[in-house]
Design goal:
single chain; about 400 residues; alpha/beta; Aspartate Aminotransferase, domain 1; Aspartate Aminotransferase, domain 2; 2 domains; seven-stranded mixed β-sheet; four-stranded mixed β-sheet; 17 strands; about 40% helix; globular; binds pyridoxal-5'-phosphate
């Protein structure tokens, strides 16, 4: 049996994989089992922001592994403590951090903080526990984060869902106002909706949302799991929007390929948890933390500026394609989280590009999703755009037949 047949026989059918069998990956490239080289414009769903097997990350990981991999959160692990300090310093003063393993876990933790804070800060009716989320959002695959996800397609077989998540329309402040009541405790939002089709929040909307949360004494939670850690051109996505949340969650690219999640809570709710309220055996694994520290060290202002320049270059090329090919409705995104909204399903274009050794993805059926590592060059962009244009031309030709 080959690898695909073995997987098909033994694995639950949760992932619809492509044919690519990965042998090796380095920087912005992947090699398959036949030695063919691919240009990666997906970075493992926004995970390897510094490229695959980044030398400095690798060095930090190896060093930590030589010392210890795990000791439990009952003892101090220096890499973990240093990372926590770094994430807090980069976020807001007087914040506190919790380290988890994944995005869903980071969001679960944020939801728990909000509930605890609502318990400590009740309204005249008592506890506050209701969280306003958004239509089209995605917050993870655990029961609570699925309930917080504003896409009905995920909900059907999970019912009864965890209660008290309600949904407003993205970029529509009035729809939020209508949902606020004596039980509301927080608003949770992705600054750029990822799985929902790469939809950035409007700056004005986020600014109004901050004011609305302050006026009603609500926590503002930013889920930066897909759009954080440099992807928008700043370390935290909230820096690109000029709006500070009370809680920010991150994961994916935090440790550039090793599992790690984090929640940073600002001074309003930093002390909501007390001993015993939350925990995780593997959360903040020292090896992942060593990797994340190396990531943070490399994400200097100069590095992030350079990635913004490449984003501008890529964006211009995409606009040219948009003007040339009528199947492109819109190009949108921030920094290097970019979506190409099509009039058709994007699946065939993704497969065409893969055949030609370019890795991209499609989300929300019609949106081609580009999440390259932040180290790509102009040459990489030119190469990717050549293949993408071929694919678009091919699709338009088929449609005209
Ligand atoms: C915005 C957002 N939140 C949460 C998650 C869940 O993260 P994880 O898969 O690490 O649990 C994702 C994953 O795609 C995401 O994009």
């Amino acid at each position: 049996m080959n690898i695909k047949q073995i997987e098909d026989k033994h694995f639950m059918r949760t992932y619809k994989r492509t044919n690519l069998v990965v042998k090796k990956a380095k920087n912005q490239f992947i090699w398959d089992d036949k030695g063919r080289k691919y240009l990666d414009f997906f970075a493992g769903i926004s995970v390897c922001n510094l490229g695959h097997c980044n030398d400095k990350v690798l060095k930090a990981v190896k060093l930590q592994l030589d010392n210890f991999a795990h000791v439990s959160n009952l003892y101090y692990a220096p890499a973990q403590v240093k990372l926590g300090e770094e994430l807090v310093k980069r976020a807001f003063p007087k914040a506190r951090v919790f380290l988890a393993n994944s995005g869903a876990e980071a969001n679960e933790c944020a939801i728990k903080i909000a509930r605890k804070w609502g318990y400590l800060n009740p309204s005249k009716l008592g506890n506050r526990y209701e969280i306003i989320c958004f239509n089209n959002s995605f917050h993870g695959r655990t029961m609570a984060t699925m309930a917080a996800t504003g896409q009905k397609k995920f909900h059907n077989y999970l019912k009864p869902l965890q209660e008290k998540f309600v949904f407003a329309d993205f970029n529509d402040i009035d729809s939020i106002k209508k949902l606020i009541n004596n039980r509301t405790v927080a608003v949770m939002i992705e600054p750029v909706q990822g799985e929902g089709g790469i939809i950035p929040a409007e700056k004005r909307f986020l600014k109004d949302l901050r004011v609305l949360c302050d006026k009603n004494n609500l926590l503002l939670i930013f889920d930066e799991i897909q759009c954080g850690i440099g992807r928008t051109g700043k370390f935290y996505a909230f820096e690109s929007f000029g709006v500070k949340p009370d809680i920010v969650t991150m994961a994916k690219s935090l440790a550039n390929g090793l599992p790690l999640g984090a929640v940073v809570a600002g001074k309003k709710c930093a002390d909501a948890f007390t001993y015993g309220d939350h925990g995780s055996t593997f959360g903040g694994n020292p090896v992942s933390c060593a990797a994340a520290l190396a990531v943070s060290k490399m994400m200097t202002a100069k590095f992030l500026y350079n990635s913004s320049k490449i984003s501008d270059y890529l964006r211009k090329k995409l606009e040219v394609l948009k003007n040339k090919y009528s199947i492109i409705k819109e190009v949108r995104g921030v920094g290097l989280i970019l979506g190409i909204d099509l009039t058709i399903n994007g699946k065939d274009i993704v497969n065409y590009c893969l055949e030609k050794r370019l890795i991209i993805n499609c989300t929300h059926d019609t949106v081609l999703r580009l999440l390259p590592s932040l180290i790509i060059t102009k040459k990489d962009v030119d190469c990717a755009m050549k293949i993408l244009e071929e694919a678009l031309k091919w699709q338009e030709k088929i449609l005209k037949k």
